[in-house]
């Protein structure tokens, strides 16, 4: 693996892809090796960009326009072979990809949308595929699995294209009305069909090669296909292809933000859009429509850092009708800019920063523009004034925490069905109340779960703050969190509120404000004696925060400046002892242990690129307080899908687990067994001609089988996970389990 130079400016995807086109075949083979040397080349800052020194006689100069290298002429090498030289291609391929963003202040003259976009077909977790989870072979092992299909399951193959267009899914039963979508399917032009074919070829090549085998050539082909798709009006699949290229860059540079399940989801989404062209044709830019006066109650502020070199902050607010809207400030920059952007002003001249508005503030906007996905524009006609805010325990914000956790989770999983570019703001947020325990967080009306950090970068305070909160056993929290579909027992904590030492409500944006021990009451002793909040022996309660006399905590709703306190690391005796013990579903029987390495090679370790969680302080959880878990067999199938993305077709064939289909059938996941057999068979299939010569492998067949398995896993998780969060599956102390146990 190589590490990208931190000083390289973002490069337009088109420029990065075109850099390899100029190279002859002999130099294209050497690009990956040259990219490994770029991190050792000095980067000098110039008034209009950057200069990369290759050696005493050779340098590459990058000219930056609006924060990015936007044209091919802006990258110049001093060697004699330029521009068809290896130095220029290696530098442009190593630089982060620029994210093309529309100016929020601009408005596009389009008819306003009067209804939400329809659920996409072919994207993992789509409604059409949810019914694929599951027809049981005999009595089902999990009551949440039921068959609501009209017919038995069908598995896509080489002749499944027409069926895919009829059903809008890649696997699972056919719907009752097969003609319901034919009339709504648009007629694509020849350039659009050609662009879709290029996108499918490029995505399939990445899938067959895997992350470990995808180099600069596969990345350039993917960016070329994305450019062709954008020119043909296929903006959603083009944007998905660029995101996949960024994920590959993160994997190549060992970036801590890389997560293999996210790359798998992006690949499945792209292949699904290609097979469902009705969802691929979208407007070129986000439309901002004029709206009437808005009063927005601030919820919280989230720092944003992207792999493409952008950073900033997004503040969430609630309108009186219950709609979540966002105001953001995102621009090229490093993680430090994400902290600074929280001080950006709210549009309209109300002299209120995003952080102050999100920390219990309220604004009234006149003349605003709002996009279909809930973004508030900052045009010159917008005016804003301050208004009386509300805490999380006051209306209208308090209503967000009144919904059952299982219903909130189901809504968030439904939100994930939509393509990333058209999802409404805040659809993946969970508003939860719970109590910190030694095993994690006990959700009121829900299960025991673990809190993990959305971003592990040291510049952001997520990991330290979550560790500190989880060390306060008995602390009652109100949380704003984000669902993590591939981790059924975990959520990403974004903001929290609790009762401080003086009885006042205390609220913190966990990514922006660095907490210390003086902000949180001390845990209660096990015997119940002692005073909550009394300093422990040797505990330092000094507060280095600014803006508060005496170092006292800033109460919830305070409209002052941002307070950033020094982090107080945990003593060695309170360091986590390891991840909590996870078990199978609550079915009244002893959970099955994971399979031994001999029967499931490669499954004994977490998937490559998974973000390490922040485990709670204390001993691992017991079986009675285990977080919600999906069937182990379903998790094995999910990891097989992710492993195919990590290692490609060769690794999938070499590590094939022949027992996996049988294990899926034994717990009632019959369709999952079909998908597993198809995937493993497509990976290992090698045909011979009449003379016994080995024929080339069929990449399209492997991609189709992989997409079927990925779609099935997503649909099964969407069906089973809300049931695992329900109160019936997790009785409270007032409603203890029966004699049979859980």
Description:
With 742 residues, the protein is an alpha+beta fold. The protein has helices spanning 13-21, 25-28, 31-38, 86-94, 127-130, 161-167, 190-213, 216-231, 235-252, 260-275, 335-341, 354-358, 405-415, 462-470, 632-654, 660-666, 670-684, 699-725; strands spanning 43-46, 49-53, 59-63, 75-77, 288-290, 294-305, 310-318, 324-332, 362-366, 369-371, 383-387, 429-437, 440-443, 448-452, 476-483, 490-499, 505-509. It has a 5-stranded antiparallel sheet. Helix 7 (190-213) crosses helix 18 (699-725). The model is unreliable at 101-183, 528-625 and 731-742 (pLDDT under 50).
> Which ranges are low-confidence, i.e. pLDDT below 50, for 5 or more consecutive residues?
101-183, 528-625, 731-742
What class would the helix/strand composition place it in?
Answer: alpha+beta
What's the count of strands? 17
Rough outline? globular
Strand-helix topology:
Layout: H1 13-21, H2 25-28, H3 31-38, E1 43-46, E2 49-53, E3 59-63, E4 75-77, H4 86-94, H5 127-130, H6 161-167, H7 190-213, H8 216-231, H9 235-252, H10 260-275, E5 288-290, E6 294-305, E7 310-318, E8 324-332, H11 335-341, H12 354-358, E9 362-366, E10 369-371, E11 383-387, H13 405-415, E12 429-437, E13 440-443, E14 448-452, H14 462-470, E15 476-483, E16 490-499, E17 505-509, H15 632-654, H16 660-666, H17 670-684, H18 699-725
Parallel strand pairs: 14-16
Antiparallel strand pairs: 1-2, 2-3, 3-4, 5-10, 6-7, 6-9, 7-8, 9-11, 12-13, 12-15, 13-14, 15-16, 16-17
Helix pairs in contact: 1-4, 1-8, 3-4, 7-8, 7-9, 7-10, 7-15, 7-18, 8-9, 9-10, 10-15, 10-18, 13-18, 15-17, 15-18, 16-17, 17-18
């Amino acid at each position: 693996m190589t590490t990208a130079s931190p000083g390289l400016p973002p490069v337009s995807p088109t420029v990065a892809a075109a850099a390899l086109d100029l190279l002859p075949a002999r130099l294209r083979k050497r690009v990956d090796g040259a990219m490994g040397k770029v991190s050792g080349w000095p980067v000098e800052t110039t008034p209009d960009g950057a200069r990369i020194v290759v050696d005493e006689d050779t340098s590459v100069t990058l000219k930056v326009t609006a924060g990015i290298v936007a044209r091919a002429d802006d990258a110049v090498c001093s060697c004699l072979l330029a521009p068809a030289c290896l130095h220029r291609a290696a530098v442009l391929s190593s630089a982060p990809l620029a994210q093309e963003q529309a100016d929020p202040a601009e408005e596009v003259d389009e008819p306003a949308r009067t209804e939400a976009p329809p659920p996409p077909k072919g994207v993992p977790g789509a409604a059409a595929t949810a019914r694929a989870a599951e027809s049981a072979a005999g009595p089902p092992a999990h009551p949440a699995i039921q068959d609501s299909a009209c017919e038995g399951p069908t598995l896509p193959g080489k002749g499944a294209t027409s069926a895919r267009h009829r059903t809008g899914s890649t696997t699972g039963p056919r719907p009752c009305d097969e003609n319901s979508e034919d009339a709504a399917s648009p007629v694509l032009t020849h350039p659009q069909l050609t662009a879709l074919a290029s996108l499918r070829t490029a995505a399939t090549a990445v899938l067959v090669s895997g992350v470990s085998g995808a180099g600069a050539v596969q990345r350039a082909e993917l960016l070329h296909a994305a450019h062709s798709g954008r020119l043909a009006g296929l903006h959603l699949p083009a944007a998905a292809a660029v995101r996949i290229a960024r994920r590959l860059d993160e994997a190549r540079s060992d970036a801590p933000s890389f997560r293999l399940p996210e790359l798998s989801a992006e690949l499945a989404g792209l292949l699904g859009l290609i097979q469902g062209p009705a969802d691929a044709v979208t407007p070129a830019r986000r439309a901002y429509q004029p709206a009437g006066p808005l009063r927005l109650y601030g919820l919280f502020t989230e720092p944003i850092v992207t792999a493409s070199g952008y950073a900033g902050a997004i503040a969430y607010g609630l309108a009186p009708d219950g709609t979540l809207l966002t105001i953001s400030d995102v621009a090229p920059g490093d993680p430090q800019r994400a902290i600074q952007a929280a001080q950006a002003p709210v549009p309209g001249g109300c002299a209120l920063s995003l952080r102050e508005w999100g920390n219990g503030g309220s604004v009234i906007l006149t003349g605003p523009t709002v996009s279909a996905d809930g973004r508030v524009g900052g045009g010159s006609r917008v005016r804003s004034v301050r208004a009386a805010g509300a805490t999380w325990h006051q209306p209208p914000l308090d209503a967000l925490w009144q919904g059952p956790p299982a219903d909130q989770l189901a809504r968030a999983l439904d939100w994930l069905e939509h393509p990333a570019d058209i999802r409404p703001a805040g659809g993946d947020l969970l508003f939860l109340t719970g109590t910190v325990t030694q095993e994690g967080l006990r959700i009121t009306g829900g299960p025991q779960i673990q809190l993990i950090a959305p971003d592990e970068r040291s510049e952001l305070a997520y990991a330290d703050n979550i560790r500190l909160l989880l060390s306060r056993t008995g602390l009652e929290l109100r949380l704003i969190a984000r669902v993590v579909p591939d981790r059924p027992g975990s959520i990403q904590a974004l903001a929290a509120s609790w009762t401080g030492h003086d009885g006042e409500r205390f609220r913190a944006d966990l990514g922006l404000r660095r907490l210390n021990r003086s902000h949180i009451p001390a845990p209660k002793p096990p015997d119940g004696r002692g005073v909550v909040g009394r300093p422990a022996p040797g505990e330092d309660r000094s507060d280095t925060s600014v803006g508060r006399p005496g170092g006292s905590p800033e109460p919830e709703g305070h409209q002052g400046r941002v307070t950033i306190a020094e982090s107080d690391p945990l003593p060695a005796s309170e360091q986590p002892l390891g991840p909590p013990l996870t078990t199978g579903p609550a079915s009244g029987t002893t959970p099955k242990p994971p399979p031994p390495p001999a029967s499931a090679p490669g499954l004994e370790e977490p998937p490559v690129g998974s973000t390490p969680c922040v485990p709670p302080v204390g001993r691992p959880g017991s079986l009675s307080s285990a977080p919600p878990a999906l069937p182990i067999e379903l998790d094995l199938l999910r990891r097989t899908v992710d492993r195919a993305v990590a290692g490609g077709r060769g690794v999938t064939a070499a590590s094939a687990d022949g027992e996996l289909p049988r294990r899926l059938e034994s717990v009632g996941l019959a369709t999952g067994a079909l998908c597993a057999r198809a995937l493993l068979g497509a990976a290992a299939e090698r045909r011979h001609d009449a003379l016994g010569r080995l024929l080339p492998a069929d990449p399209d067949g492997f991609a189709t089988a992989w997409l079927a398995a990925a779609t099935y896993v997503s649909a099964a998780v969407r069906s089973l996970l809300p049931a695992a969060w329900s109160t019936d599956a997790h009785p409270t102390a007032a409603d203890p389990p029966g004699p049979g146990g859980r």
